[in-house]
Write a structure and sequence with these properties.
Helix 2 (about 45-60) packs across helix 8 (about 225-250) and helix 6 crosses helix 8 (about 225-250). This protein has a four-stranded parallel beta sheet, sandwiched between helices. The chain is globular, with a radius of gyration of 18 Å. With about 250 residues, the chain is of the alpha/beta class. The protein contains eight helices and four strands. The chain has one domain (about 10-245): Rossmann fold (3-Layer(aba) Sandwich). Helix content is about 40%, strand content about 10%. The protein binds zinc ion. The site of zinc ion has 6 residues, from helix 2.
Length: about 250
Amino acid sequence: MSNAYILSDMTWLEAKDAFAKAELAIVPIGAFEQHGPFMTFEVDTVRAYGFGKLLAERLYPRVILAPPITFGISHHHMKFPGTITLEHDTFHAVIRDIVRSLMAHGMNQFFLVNGHGGNNPALEEMIVRLRHELGIKIAVSHPTTMGNEVTKNRPKAALGIHCGEGETSQAMYLAPHVVHPERIVPGAVRGYPYKNLSKSSGIVYPSTWDELTENGALGDATEASAELGKQIIDAALLKASEFLVDFMDKNAKT
Ligand SMILES: [Zn+2]
């Protein structure tokens, strides 16, 4: 029964029952940003929500799935027409307000499912603040990172995350309507804008995507497939569900 754990499918009557049974709320967080010439703006949101649905299905009735947050931190994509970003303060405030609303319905454990790498620094700061300010149990997850053992030996997957093989495969599996497979091209990568800059160089510079790539894509998704996407998502689901069972079991005893 799909509406047994998906809050968006419920009336308040079903929600009353679901909150009475649930121990934890899953909150998917995406973005509305350009994804190269072959994927639409909502890729990160539909991946986070799609993953959240599969995770909630496994853990029902112990969890409830909140609607997705459809905007994120996307300043670095603003040179590409159509991207919409939240300011950091707004992003923090939206998450805090959603958490506090779910707390009002009895939730004190939260699992954020993040579909957009650009949200990571803000979310990792946010969960520390929320844990200590509100006294809740909260963790954030990145399905792409949780599933990266599947792609680690695929040379094209290592080239880049944004519009790369892993992300595109996940989108093909979870939400094929956001992908135009016939338009897939490798990222027209420019490289880092300054000397000695890289992911692991020890120097942090907030590059914008127009500095890094001409067509908005990094990596190479030409061998992406729904089958690969399923493998990545299944690996991430296993890790997330094992973590959450342990998380909820141990928190139930404290
Ligand atoms: Zn993305």
